[in-house]
Amino acid sequence: MMSAKSGNSTEHVNKKPRIDRDSFDTMVVVKVGRDETVFRMHKTIICNVSPFFKAAFEGNFVEAQEQVLELLDESITMFKHFQLWVYTDSIITKGETATDVTWVSLACLYIFGEKCGIPDLQNMAIDVLIDKQQISIRMPISIIRKVYDDTPATAPLRRLLVDLMACKFPVVHGGLAEWMREQIPKDFLFDLAVVLHALRAGSKADIEDFKACRSDYHVKSPVSPPAPTSGGAASKPL
To answer: Where is the BTB domain (predicted)?
Structure first.
């Protein structure tokens, strides 16, 4: 196999607007999960990081009048990471490492960032996932299923998971076990076969250091979010 390292390594730079003294004036409520766990956040801050929340709390929707948004289909654990990121630019608290965030939570953060038009959050999830793979000996099938169920075919996260499996986990070169092939999405297996063929043919370089080329998997352009939703149903204008 060829061996190469990308020369365009960059550290993730957050681009959220600067917070000023007026950012803490008004609070809004976000109810998350089936238990409707309440998260109280500063309206200006959350609207600044996401066009989805800006449309919900400042647009012509019921949420704007009530200042309450329901995200009943979202994970509470994921939203805690999101809330931390909104205020600290990190999804990991002080004293924690990438090992303290589950693979699926990172996938959920990425998917949530796509829904809400927050590429910076998606890229942060990518960065932590790459840090996590450096100390992991396997990739759980659950993250593959989650990503392939809830992202478009062009999602950079799909490409990252395929490249990680092909380049970091050599078990695939001897063939996947039958039970793995039955549980892994067919689209992932197809993408993996394409990459493995390219590696063996020498038309794709083996990736030795994913951290050095993390920007190759970053979302390059803003994502247009859907209209605000409440428990999975589209909100109605006032």
So the answer is: 24-95
Structure-token match 């450096």, residue found: 134
| DSSP code string of 105-149 | HHHHHHHHHHHHT-HHHHHHHHHHHHHHHTT-S---HHHHHHHHH
The secondary structure of 25-56 as a DSSP string is S-EEEEEETTTTEEEEEEHHHHHHH-HHHHHH
Q: Classify residue 72 by its DSSP letter.
A: T
Question: pTM of the predicted model, to two decimals?
Answer: 0.82
Question: Amino acid identity of 103?
Answer: W
- Percent of the chain having pLDDT more than 70? 77
Q: How many residues does the structure list for the chain?
A: 238
Rg (CA), the chain: 19
User: Tokens in use for 189?
Assistant: 């297996």
Average pLDDT rounded to a whole number, residues 109-130: 96
